[in-house]
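User: Hi! I have a protein structure encoded as tokens and I'd like to know what sequence might fold into it. I'm fairly new to this, so please keep things simple.
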């Protein structure tokens, strides 16, 4: 028997308001009521994950969607810090970015990203990709609790 999928906590690290809006919309249309938290730069991401400052009561994410091109602290730095931290490294990180550069793809996997997804420019395709990521991590993958 299949268990009903459990809602998961997702942290979106994204500085583009349009992409944030699209991601929120994609999550709202899925069947499972996942919680989506949003931070806009790399420093906020690390404060959220470490529950520092204004994020002292932040939920622990089950999944991180990470843009690479962020202000204040680059997404590559954030990924490196997450995967070097004993407390955070088990959280799956999906790099969700506009970059198709081989160097970014290789570096992201070298830093132990769990997946690398290039954001489609088409509205409907973007929504579809985010829904597929959400669906995969909710219904297919067993996440650590």
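Assistant: Happy to help. Inverse folding works backwards from shape to sequence: for each of the 145 positions I chose a residue that suits the local structure. Here it is:
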């Amino acid at each position: 028997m299949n268990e009903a999928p459990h809602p998961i906590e997702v942290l979106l690290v994204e500085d583009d308001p349009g992409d944030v809006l699209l991601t929120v919309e994609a999550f709202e249309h899925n069947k499972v009521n996942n919680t989506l938290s949003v931070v806009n730069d790399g420093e906020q991401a690390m404060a959220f994950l470490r529950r520092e400052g204004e994020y002292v009561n932040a939920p622990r994410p089950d999944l991180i969607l990470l843009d690479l091109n962020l202000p204040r602290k680059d997404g590559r730095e954030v990924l490196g810090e997450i995967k070097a931290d004993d407390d955070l490294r088990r959280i799956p990180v999906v790099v969700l970015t506009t970059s198709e550069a081989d160097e970014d793809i290789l570096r992201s996997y070298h830093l132990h990203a769990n997946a690398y997804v290039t954001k489609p420019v088409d509205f409907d395709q973007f929504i579809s990709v985010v829904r597929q990521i959400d669906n995969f991590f909710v219904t297919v993958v067993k996440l650590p609790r």
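A useful reference point when you look it over: The CA atoms of residues 98 and 121 lie 8 Å apart. Feel free to ask if any position seems puzzling.
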